[in-house]
């Protein structure tokens, strides 16, 4: 194409392999281009657009130029030739994705047929011969394989790089489909306006740091949340037996927590400086959470971070960003809340009863109890929703609970995505010093427990070290956790004069702390999961409305499991 007629190739293809750089390079590259914008090649259609001021002027000028080119038979032929070459380039990029040995191995793990990728390269000539049916069929099959890969990637583990690649290939698919439609109606002004508008929108945000960071945060969130949702399925009681099972596990968790709450009181009495105190608190919390987990107990406040992701997964179970089966989702929300309530009541009741019993034993066997009247009064004040900062500090604990759940999901996913199990088993260094059977045992332990250990240890250190942030912020930072608060109330009840009013107020404070723990942790994970799947709140209005209506008319369904009644779908 001569110099007077711009080249449309880069305009049509829109993406370049030179854009496939890492996050840091991409970030600083955008900053650099903000000061020294990139100039398109002078012979390109993009350069012509850069000479025009304003989006409307660019659109109108582009349409006028295209109209002039199409009215000249020779120039129209050259334009169609570039369009065919652009379609071919994009199709080959798409085909190369599926034929890559690493990608194809992931497809093989999921038993997904990838013949459609090989078909693409064979039928590209159909575009030039005005036969696009086979090509469009192959492209639709490719899209299905990518959606299956994204849908089931929790089974093989995901990574930000894989997610970026699949998003980019889906963008290629959308672009090449639009170009094929344009090829079929080359003189259509509506088709041209659509293509031009898409490019202008892409060009406006090309150097946006906010969008760039946001998209990568969304991808990171998706990487974590995908696996967290898979884990969350195990925290939902689907029948009466499982409901009672969660209550029993909650009792186990409450019993263990009451013991470690006592250890925390002993730690308090040693008057340690800040850093040793934070370390002692953190180790106490972390050890407690790990023992609860490995003895088969449940800590209720750890469930929301998992179950919120599960609800979002069911909302978008087809990966089409649409609300799927709203009535089924409402029933799932009922089950999630019931399971949470059963665990929470188990934690609360056992922590309260066990700590009271331990306090009686301490008073009967120890000359000097570690819980003085002043200490008991302080423990009561701590759970006050207002004067003890219970609501605010419970919110901080909720943030840490959500964060620890995400950390656990992140490491669980990494174990699968990096094929860590097999790498440990086949490690040459380890094979020289450790037998194969021991390597297998070690690798399976890592696969099963790395997420559990990192999640619980991180939560322990977040909760135990939170007060150190008081040295940074102009206000006090602390945490309130329902199970530990329940245990503290139990210890305080036995070591101060009984007052029915203050006791009821303390119980109310503990339940408020539990509610805030749950709501904050659940909300953070829920909205992060929404963002990771690009689902907007506007798309959830109907679900939220029906859920609130269901809570108002069926409140007991969110608390107790009625074994004698078959649950019907919400109307």
Q: Can you put this structure into words, describing what you see?
A:
The chain is 72% helix and 0% strand. The protein is built from 24 helices and no strands. It has helices at residues 9-13, 23-35, 45-50, 55-71, 73-99, 101-109, 115-122, 125-128, 133-151, 160-184, 189-204, 209-232, 240-268, 274-294, 304-315, 326-365, 373-382, 390-417, 420-425, 428-433, 436-464, 482-494, 500-532, 541-553. The mean pLDDT is 80.
Please describe the structure with a list of short key phrases separated by commas or semicolons.
mainly alpha
What's the total count of β strands? 0
What is the string of helix and strand elements? Answer: HHHHHHHHHHHHHHHHHHHHHHHH
Sheet bearing the most strands, described? none
Query: What is the alpha-carbon Rg in Å?
Result: 30 Å
The mean pLDDT is 80
Proportion of strand residues: under 5%
Q: What helical percentage do the residues reach?
A: over 70%
Number of helices: 24
N-end to C-end Cα span: 63 Å
Shape: elongated
- Regions with little confidence, pLDDT below 50 for 5+ residues: none
Which secondary-structure class do the elements indicate?
A: mainly alpha
């Amino acid at each position: 194409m001569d110099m007077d007629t711009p080249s449309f190739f880069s305009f049509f293809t829109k993406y370049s392999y030179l854009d496939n750089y890492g996050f840091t390079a991409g970030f600083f590259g955008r900053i650099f281009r903000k000061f020294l914008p990139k100039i398109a090649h002078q012979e390109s259609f993009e350069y012509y657009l850069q000479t025009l001021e304003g989006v409307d002027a660019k659109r109108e000028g582009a349409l006028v130029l295209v109209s002039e080119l199409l009215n000249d038979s020779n120039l129209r032929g050259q334009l169609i030739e570039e369009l065919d070459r652009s379609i071919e380039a994009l199709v080959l990029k798409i085909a190369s994705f599926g034929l890559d040995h690493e990608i194809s191995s992931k497809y093989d793990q999921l038993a997904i047929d990838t013949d459609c990728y090989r078909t693409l390269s064979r039928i590209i000539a159909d575009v030039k011969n005005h036969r696009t049916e086979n090509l469009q069929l192959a492209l639709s099959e490719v899209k299905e394989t990518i959606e299956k890969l994204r849908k089931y990637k929790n089974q093989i583990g995901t990574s930000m790089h894989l997610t970026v690649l699949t998003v980019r290939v889906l963008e290629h698919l959308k672009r090449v489909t639009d170009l094929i439609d344009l090829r079929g109606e080359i003189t259509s002004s509506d088709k041209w306006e659509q293509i031009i508008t898409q490019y202008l929108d892409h060009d406006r945000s090309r150097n946006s740091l906010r969008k760039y960071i946001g998209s990568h945060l969304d991808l990171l969130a998706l990487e974590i949340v995908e696996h967290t949702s898979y884990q969350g399925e195990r925290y939902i009681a689907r029948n009466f037996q499982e409901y009672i099972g969660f209550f029993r596990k909650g009792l186990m968790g409450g019993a263990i927590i009451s013991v470690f709450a006592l250890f925390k009181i002993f730690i308090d009495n040693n008057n340690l400086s800040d850093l040793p105190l934070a370390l002692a608190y953190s180790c106490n919390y972390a050890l407690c959470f790990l023992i609860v987990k490995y003895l088969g107990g449940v800590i209720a406040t750890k469930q929301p971070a998992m179950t919120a992701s599960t609800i979002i997964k069911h909302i978008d179970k087809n990966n089409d960003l649409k609300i799927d089966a709203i009535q089924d989702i409402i029933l799932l929300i009922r089950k999630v809340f019931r399971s949470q309530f059963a665990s929470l009541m188990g934690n609360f009741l056992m922590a309260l009863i066990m700590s009271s019993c331990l306090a009686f034993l301490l008073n009967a066997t120890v000359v000097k109890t570690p819980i003085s009247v002043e200490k008991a009064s302080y423990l009561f004040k701590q759970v006050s929703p207002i004067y003890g900062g219970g609501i605010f500090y419970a919110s901080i604990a909720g943030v840490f609970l959500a964060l620890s759940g995400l950390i656990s999901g992140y490491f669980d996913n990494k174990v699968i995505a990096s094929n860590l199990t097999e790498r440990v088993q086949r490690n040459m260094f380890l094979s020289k010093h450790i037998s194969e059977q021991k390597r297998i045992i070690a690798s399976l332990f890592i696969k099963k427990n790395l997420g559990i250990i990192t999640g619980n240890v991180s939560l322990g250190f977040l909760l135990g070290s939170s007060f150190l942030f008081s040295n940074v912020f102009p206000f006090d930072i602390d945490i309130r956790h329902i199970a530990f608060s329940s245990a503290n109330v139990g210890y305080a009840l036995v070591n101060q004069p009984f007052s029915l009013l203050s006791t009821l107020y303390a119980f109310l404070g503990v339940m408020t702390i539990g509610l805030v723990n749950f709501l904050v942790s659940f909300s953070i994970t829920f909205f992060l999961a929404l963002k990771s799947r690009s689902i907007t709140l506007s798309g959830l209005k109907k679900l939220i409305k029906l859920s609130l209506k269901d809570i108002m008319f069926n409140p007991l369904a969110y608390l107790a499991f009625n074994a004698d009644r078959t649950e019907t779908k919400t109307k």
